[in-house]
Amino acid sequence: MKARSIFHRTLAHESAIPVYHATFKKVPKSLSNGLHNVDPERLHEHLSYLKERYTIVCLDEYFAARRPKRLAVITFDDAYTSVFENALPILRDLDIPCTIFVNSATADGAFFWRDLVRLIITSGLEAEFDKWTKHRFRIEGQSFYRYTKDPRNNSREVHQTLVAFLADQSGVESTMPSFSQPATRFISSPLVCYGNHTHQHYVLSSLTHEQQTAEIITIHDFLNAHPDLNQTMVFAVPFGGMDTFNESTFRILSDLGYSGTVLSRQRLNRCPAHLFGLPIAERFMPDCTPLSSQICTLLEKSVPK
Ligand SMILES: [Zn+2]
């Protein structure tokens, strides 16, 4: 315990960018498999902890800082309705800014394709899907949840197949409401900023260059059509791992004038970093335990070997 507090003191300059997803009080049954959820009470504890120990800034301020030191940025990915209902009132009370990374497909009313994956799991239809597709996407040693987002499977084809399969399953999908916030109910507030998280949230590295371009430009245009909303020119890579994007992704972002990219690799930020010529920042997904111990673990992980 003593060693952990020493890490806290000596590495206190690191910056923290948590990425939250859903903030349901109780996760709906159809989403209960694999959904990253932090309930509002725990979220309040996390944000209070960060406000006490870090300077909380918006994402663009973080990227503009030449030497980001002990800064924190709050981000939410995928624009779940629960964030607007349960998280934003907490941020307002604490006077904390945040960025919500949006997918234009779900903002336009479509189902989030990863929620379809969760629906198939909770309906016990994974094996049936594999049989129905004649094992087309299966990857040895991986679960259905995992192989459907493996970069070796073109996400667009997986998504189209999921939709066709569910349509063939006597209305399983029609029993599920959408859990994504429609754009018509996005909130315009000085504390809330919106960012590009692609159109459909596909694994970009699984797509062709043309498909990637379409994924990024569709929401770029969508956000441009909403000048009433604060926007960031920082991009959030769907899934956020090193194997989920490639050089093409960064070339497209640079051509469109994006100022940076955030990943999600369970890390804190020590100093500015670049990838394919664009500034990048690391994020981590907090779980439902006190944030102090999670930050401590991340600090220990980042000690140079
Ligand atoms: Zn996401």
What does this structure look like?
With 305 residues, the protein is an alpha/beta fold. It has 2 domains: 2-110 and 180-301, Alpha-Beta Barrel (TIM Barrel), CATH 3.20.20; 113-175. It is 38% helix and 12% strand. It has helices spanning 2-10, 40-53, 59-64, 81-94, 104-107, 113-122, 126-132, 144-147, 155-167, 209-224, 247-255, 291-301, and strands spanning 19-20, 55-56, 71-72, 74-77, 98-102, 192-196, 230-236, 260-262, 273-275, 278-281. Helix 6 crosses helix 9 (155-167). The protein is globular and about 50 Å long. The model has no long low-confidence stretch (mean pLDDT 92). Zinc ion binds next to loops.
Largest sheet, in brief, is:
8 strands, mixed
Number of helices: 12
CATH topology of the largest domain: TIM Barrel
User: How confident overall, as mean pLDDT?
Assistant: 92
State the share of residues found in helices, binned by percent.
25-40%
The CATH homologous superfamily of the largest domain is named Glycoside hydrolase/deacetylase
Describe the structure concisely for a colleague.
This protein is an alpha/beta fold and 305 residues long. 38% of the residues lie in helices and 12% in strands. The chain has helices at 2-10, 40-53, 59-64, 81-94, 104-107, 113-122, 126-132, 144-147, 155-167, 209-224, 247-255, 291-301; strands at 19-20, 55-56, 71-72, 74-77, 98-102, 192-196, 230-236, 260-262, 273-275, 278-281.
Which short descriptors sum up this protein?
305 residues; alpha/beta; TIM Barrel; two-stranded parallel ribbon; 12 helices; 10 strands; globular; binds zinc ion
